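Lab notebook, page 48
Experiment: co-folding of the full assembly
Goal: obtain a model of how the components sit together before planning crosslinking
Operator: M.T.
Materials (sequences as entered):
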Amino acid sequence: MANKWTIAIDAMGGDNAPLSVIAGLDLIYDYLVKNNIALLLFGDAKVLSPYLVRYPRLNNISTIVQADEVVQGDDKPSKIIRKGRNTSMWKAIEAVRNKQADAVVSGGNTGCLMGISKLLISMIEGIRRPAITTLLPNTTDYTAMLDLGANAECDEHNIAQFAVMGSIYSKILLGKQKPKVGILNIGSEAGKGLDYLTKAEEIFEAKKEHLPFEYFGFVEGDDIMKNKVDVIATDGFSGNVALKSIEGTAKFISTDLKKVFVKSPLTMFGYLFMRGAVKKFKNKMDPRKYNGAVFLGLNGVVVKSHGGTDAFGFSNAVLYASRLLVDDFTSKVAEEIKKLN
Amino acid sequence: MANKWTIAIDAMGGDNAPLSVIAGLDLIYDYLVKNNIALLLFGDAKVLSPYLVRYPRLNNISTIVQADEVVQGDDKPSKIIRKGRNTSMWKAIEAVRNKQADAVVSGGNTGCLMGISKLLISMIEGIRRPAITTLLPNTTDYTAMLDLGANAECDEHNIAQFAVMGSIYSKILLGKQKPKVGILNIGSEAGKGLDYLTKAEEIFEAKKEHLPFEYFGFVEGDDIMKNKVDVIATDGFSGNVALKSIEGTAKFISTDLKKVFVKSPLTMFGYLFMRGAVKKFKNKMDPRKYNGAVFLGLNGVVVKSHGGTDAFGFSNAVLYASRLLVDDFTSKVAEEIKKLN
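Observation: model returned without errors.
Model output:
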């Protein structure tokens, strides 16, 4: 039976690549087989082959495509665009452009991944700007927020399209039938904040019957981690500031928390009794579980895995890509954008 | 001896007013006396007088000024500006306008406090826009960030002036001799993000010898709680989003943390041994210690105390106002802004 979908994997991207990549793919081998998903592994065959010896069943669904070079963490997109055509990242993205693959997953340099993808892959018909999104944990579930930095400046049409893309993303990944969408603002009353946000609300009002979501209203920064809405639409500047502020605070608190736990023999002793509960807490906060920023709006699914993640984290990024393919994210967006425009 | 400074207190503002207000002032009675600071207490004398019976020494430095009405939490600034002239908040701000007081402190409605202050009190000469700031804890100290929401849209001159005001604020409250200032952006390389942020950097470069601070460069959302810079300058939209994202995350994590601690008899038992360490952790995070958003740029110090705080929190807000007066914040800003313009 022919494979239904093909995912291009940048096997060299990320701090722990290629081990985390290959081991991660092996973790979801059964899922990939069941859903008829084939893999193209981009990287140096000499480096990759020994790993495939350790995870031999992957050979049944994978083909190595030779790429001599690797994009480095500090490479500028402009440099890679000029002379990075032999990198595993470039070639993996190119495979999507050439219809040899339907999606690309990389744990490499974010700026380069987004820059090359935007250059090589066309946009979904009707989409004005692509956007970066990810899932953030809230009190009971996850919230999708977009844009997280692809577009520093936006207008009301961008915000409206982000809402549509985010809600289809939320439907597929979180099973929300009619996601609730909020617009990030600095006050929740109508008329607050920036003009184009109010204009985006007017678009939602005018197109009410044609939206794939329920419009909730404005939300603020402290609503992101409450389970108030399923999708938050925002410009890429504010979205990036919000995301990084959340990450910085979580890191600040967890670092301080660690200090509390190792402070003295007495607290260490107390910790023994609490270990289970603390483990559960950490498990809930585990960023590997929502690993994967997705670049939405292109004719092909582009997923950025966190550079420092392990096999489990990488496997989740590939699962995101797979589910967006299996549930036909791209066609659904094209269809809903037609209704909106 | 005549009093050197007078602070107008909105004695009715805040969830726990007037008790938290009067008890808070009593906590710092010695400091106020030592620094020759007198108080004007705005509110209903019938309500306030019984509290002054409980804290009688406050009578030595306080005068009650009758105000029949109180601004409510959900009052719109436009309504209070039309018909709120008998409120304790309005009258307290008016006292600064009329030079009867040098500063005003209120735990009431933020929008009304900022709106009325902007309307009644003139701006420091040379200042284009006032800004809201507060101190945020970082790994080893506190960082001042501004603007936090007074100006949704800003230009390079606003950002440059915020940097000047923030650095004098940081000098006075944190004792920084040459504060390090960063501009909030979505990347740390020069040329990243929005145009006016790059233009603000150019102003700093051109005025290098005339700045009361050291310019550090761009910082990102996850740098706010690191001790990377002492002051972060940003537009009021991004600043508000960042602040609320931080607050929301801290609340999200501490709520989950509480659940961990009360989960079972076993964890409760473990908690007994860790109590001291956890207490220290909470103490460091105690928002009452950095209670007080300050509205900078007006001819008079305007401090907003958190509405839900207690006497200790309110006393810290009054201490902020006092120290900004004693160290002559307003004249210092006027002087530095002259050099910048």
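Interpretation: The longest strand of chain A covers residues 37-43.
Next step: discuss with group before ordering constructs.
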